[in-house]
Amino acid sequence: MKGTGTAFRRVVAVLLVGIGLGAAAGARAFEDDEGCLLCHKYPKMGRVTEDGARRSYYVMPHVFGKTVHRNVPCRDCHSYIKELPHREVKEGVRCDSRCHSIKNPATGKNFSHQPIYEVYRRSTHGRPKLATGLDADKPYCVTCHTNPIYNPDEDQPPRHITDRCVVCHEDRGFVEAWYNHTSRRIREVRRGSAEIVSLCSSCHGDEKLIQRHLEAARRDGRELGRKFEIAAESYQESFHGKVTRYGFTKAANCLDCHADQENYYLSVHEILPSRDPQAPTYPDNRHRICQRCHKYADESYAAIDPHPGDDKVHNPFRYYAEEVYNWIGNIVIVGLVGLALFETIGRWRDGVVWRLRHGSSWWRRSRRNRDRII
Ligand code: HEC
Ligand code: HEC
Ligand code: HEC
Ligand code: HEC
Ligand code: HEC
Ligand code: HEC
Ligand code: HEC
């Protein structure tokens, strides 16, 4: 920050002394010590972009203060803002940037999501922040992650635990912050199966997106998985999909099969196509996925199709079986109706009529002496 920036900062600093002192008592609450909220706290702030979309630049301090990133100063992420008032934004926030002010206590280095970012860039979904064309269809970090809100219940950790930490660490703020940090991770915070299915299906069930990629792949001679076209809809047809739809949580969801379960939180970012030998869905690795839940699964069990389509291309056996059964069904119905017609016409020619009297039945004797004696 130079020139106007420095002057601006001094003013902001003066303004913040009062606020800062008040906030310090509440331990590690969010502090706007870069003065961004000076402008961004106004609800009306925003603009209409060239393509007509409304963008809001309003940051709600009480909401931001409860998110996972509340201890990260705005400019650690918005690092392109070097002076105030700031210039127009081009690339925006990249999730592999290094925090200037937060250190990773384990490594002593400035904190960054780089390890996840590198895995993600190698994955089938990897793309730069500013992507064009087909790459723009792939999910970036913020497609799957907004800035999640901490559970407010965790704001007051149980005293019987923290009292014990305070004995040594003396500072209750420090202890509570670390307690919250850890306890949130000890509890299971994974998305449920239904959430994952709807996240993946938001793209893999989007017909226009799929057609775009199929056409481009055909044009460039690039390979796509043979289930690419029907991935989301066929999952719904599978046993796993059906029970998941009705609220069962133990059946396989997309990530149970497409992500390695070892080191899950990293592996979910490394989704690879099934033709890649590293992928858990690669034919030779497949039985290991199933074994996790189906104890006795072997290679032949793993050959059961997790994406069963019903059309000729994706599932010829089911397609032809259905065709055959349809024909058998039709022939049987035609035969039955035909038989009933024959019988009716024959009796009618005999002069036997069908009446509704004391229930319903055939009446009168046969003219041709063909009464059936039972
Ligand atoms: C002096 C008032 C002011 C201060 C202080 C301020 N901003 Fe802004 N900010 C604005 C205005 C005005 C816009 C809208 C600019 C536009 O429409 O081009 C904006 C827009 C933005 C945008 C969106 C830009 C885009 O085009 O997507 C980001 C991100 C942003 N500010 C971050 C910050 C951060 C981080 C800080 C603190 C370091 C900060 N701002 C401090 C006035 C301010
Ligand atoms: C953990 C990183 C992170 C922190 C901390 C953070 N932001 Fe952001 N902010 C983002 C991301 C990511 C976006 C989405 C736009 C993008 O991709 O560039 C965003 C969007 C915005 C926007 C809207 C821009 C637009 O183009 O729609 C504003 C304004 C903004 N942030 C201001 C702030 C202010 C003020 C703070 C501090 C109170 C702050 N941000 C803290 C990551 C962060
Ligand atoms: C008997 C004293 C004692 C108790 C009780 C204690 N700690 Fe510690 N803690 C230490 C010492 C000494 C260190 C630094 C040396 C080390 O790493 O072992 C430390 C390190 C830490 C660190 C690492 C800080 C850093 O930046 O490297 C955290 C976090 C921490 N303690 C949290 C807690 C929490 C939370 C509790 C309560 C559940 C707790 N401690 C209970 C003595 C204690
Ligand atoms: C296709 C969706 C997707 C994309 C893209 C994605 N993630 Fe994730 N991420 C997940 C899922 C799913 C989890 C597992 C936790 C859960 O279920 O929410 C996760 C977990 C995480 C966690 C651990 C969260 C915690 O609470 O412990 C971090 C950190 C993370 N992702 C960062 C990133 C970053 C950085 C990027 C971009 C390089 C990224 N993610 C891209 C889906 C995604
Ligand atoms: C934002 C949209 C989006 C989301 C969300 C998304 N994907 Fe994708 N996915 C794509 C695109 C686009 C491709 C690339 C197709 C190509 O290479 O042309 C792709 C590729 C794939 C491939 C490899 C396809 C192939 O044959 O090469 C798999 C497997 C995959 N995704 C699984 C998943 C799973 C599982 C999830 C949920 C965790 C998910 N995707 C979420 C858009 C998305
Ligand atoms: C029971 C395990 C399992 C589940 C659950 C599952 N898949 Fe698959 N998926 C596979 C296997 C195995 C293949 C490779 C099938 C083949 O080519 O015969 C595959 C193929 C794919 C493909 C084609 C690209 C490739 O890698 O061959 C996409 C895209 C895909 N799945 C997305 C999804 C989505 C989205 C979901 C959730 C709605 C999901 N899958 C659920 C096992 C699973
Ligand atoms: C996350 C756990 C999980 C994984 C991984 C998983 N399944 Fe399942 N699967 C289930 C559950 C739970 C059921 C329902 C079992 C029941 O109660 O009948 C089920 C049911 C089935 C069924 C219906 C018939 C039966 O045996 O109950 C088939 C077929 C099946 N799975 C095949 C597979 C195949 C093939 C794979 C590997 C590609 C696989 N599953 C991976 C959890 C899983």
Describe the structure.
The chain is mostly helical and 374 residues long. It has helices spanning 4-24, 37-40, 61-64, 74-77, 114-122, 141-144, 159-169, 172-186, 193-204, 207-220, 231-237, 239-245, 254-258, 264-267, 286-293, 299-302, 316-349; strands spanning 46-48, 54-56, 98-103, 110-112, 353-356, 360-363. The protein has four domains: 4-127, no CATH class; 151-189, no CATH class; 199-314, no CATH class; 318-363, no CATH class. Helices cover 45% and strands 6% of the residues. A two-stranded antiparallel ribbon has the order 1-2. Strand 3 (98-103) and strand 4 (110-112) form a beta hairpin. Helix 7 (159-169) packs across helix 8 (172-186) and helix 11 packs across helix 12 (239-245). The protein starts with a helix and ends in an 11-residue tail after the last strand.
Low-pLDDT runs: 1-28
The major beta sheet can be summarized as: 2 strands, antiparallel
The structural class is mainly alpha
The neighbouring-strand order within the major sheet is 1-2
Specify the helix fraction band.
40-55%
Radius of gyration: 33 Å
Q: How many DSSP-defined strands?
A: 6
Please report the distance between the alpha carbons of the first and last residues: 109 Å
